[in-house]
Amino acid sequence: MALTHGGNGAGNLDKHRGGVKREEREMWNEKWWVAYQGVPGAYSELAARTACPGCFTLPCRTLTGAVLAVESGEADRAVLPVESTMDGTALRNYDILLRHDVRVAREITLFVRYCLLALPGVRKAGLRRVMSHPVALAHCGRALARLGVDREPVEDTAGAVRLLSTRRMFDAAAIASARAGEIYGLDVIDEGVQDEAWNTTRFLIVSRDGEVGAGARAPKKTSMVVAHAGDDAMAMLRRVLSAFASRGVNLTKLEWLKGRRLRVFARVMVVDFEGSVEEEENVREAVKEVEESAAFVRVLGCYASDRTVYNLE
């Protein structure tokens, strides 16, 4: 079952378009409600259903709307894509996490197989344009160049499929998941059209309390943001590396961040590392040392490390 949530704030479910009122939602409170950006068939919805089997999903117009749904209690979890093998880190989405009172509860990595979808009977030779999210269009640049079609960006991959279906566009195709085609009645006329065969996206599942839930016994991982007021980036980098290396804590990610939330600071970095500040003393000591020299430190969450790549079949 899916709901539609507005992007301008929480508590604005539109029951005239398939939404459900809060009192009706509470009838199913034994299952998690997971918010995501897009419409049914989006890759973020697949990530939600993979991470939380049997959940109800809450489509939102924007990623901010998905996080607001968690803050307001309309959803229990939200899904945010944070990095891909083809594009690197989606730094703006870390900025969203910093602006809201949520914590990372889990990570999940999906193999993304882009399909070219069109109305039944449409052939490649008849295509004049292809629609999808701008990132998906960029990921499939070589295939689109061979087709010689115009590229039309839209807000969501599955949203492009729905648009083709509702408007009966026989000169157009969409790039999205095969599941989106099944939902909206489009045929797969080509698959695996991404430029790089190995194409994965890592998602973070966030909640209000940050509880790990599934995978609670797995090795832990922590994500945090560190800001420095000075201009000496190398000095900041050395201090962070030293704090963790001297205690035998492995870093799994270190990347500079630029975002509206932290623009008052000269240097900001995202740091992921093995271990949990909630359970391991050496990890707590490393974070404390970083805090002593940093202008700002925020732990985004401690969660189960999951190196599995899902959706490979």
From TrEMBL:
<comment type="pathway">
    <text>Amino-acid biosynthesis; L-phenylalanine biosynthesis; phenylpyruvate from prephenate: step 1/1.</text>
</comment>
<feature type="domain" description="ACT">
    <location>
        <begin position="225"/>
        <end position="304"/>
    </location>
</feature>
<keyword id="KW-0028">Amino-acid biosynthesis</keyword>
<dbReference type="InterPro" id="IPR045865">
    <property type="entry name" value="ACT-like_dom_sf"/>
</dbReference>
<dbReference type="GO" id="GO:0009570">
    <property type="term" value="C:chloroplast stroma"/>
</dbReference>
<dbReference type="InterPro" id="IPR002912">
    <property type="entry name" value="ACT_dom"/>
</dbReference>
<dbReference type="InterPro" id="IPR001086">
    <property type="entry name" value="Preph_deHydtase"/>
</dbReference>
<dbReference type="GO" id="GO:0009094">
    <property type="term" value="P:L-phenylalanine biosynthetic process"/>
</dbReference>
<feature type="compositionally biased region" description="Gly residues">
    <location>
        <begin position="1"/>
        <end position="10"/>
    </location>
</feature>
<keyword id="KW-0057">Aromatic amino acid biosynthesis</keyword>
<dbReference type="GO" id="GO:0004664">
    <property type="term" value="F:prephenate dehydratase activity"/>
</dbReference>
<keyword id="KW-0584">Phenylalanine biosynthesis</keyword>
<dbReference type="GO" id="GO:0047769">
    <property type="term" value="F:arogenate dehydratase activity"/>
</dbReference>
<comment type="pathway">
    <text>Amino-acid biosynthesis; L-phenylalanine biosynthesis; L-phenylalanine from L-arogenate: step 1/1.</text>
</comment>
<keyword id="KW-0456">Lyase</keyword>
<dbReference type="InterPro" id="IPR018528">
    <property type="entry name" value="Preph_deHydtase_CS"/>
</dbReference>
<feature type="domain" description="Prephenate dehydratase">
    <location>
        <begin position="33"/>
        <end position="208"/>
    </location>
</feature>
<dbReference type="InterPro" id="IPR008242">
    <property type="entry name" value="Chor_mutase/pphenate_deHydtase"/>
</dbReference>
<feature type="region of interest" description="Disordered">
    <location>
        <begin position="1"/>
        <end position="20"/>
    </location>
</feature>
<protein>
    <recommendedName>
        <fullName>Prephenate dehydratase</fullName>
    </recommendedName>
</protein>
<dbReference type="Pfam" id="PF00800">
    <property type="entry name" value="PDT"/>
</dbReference>
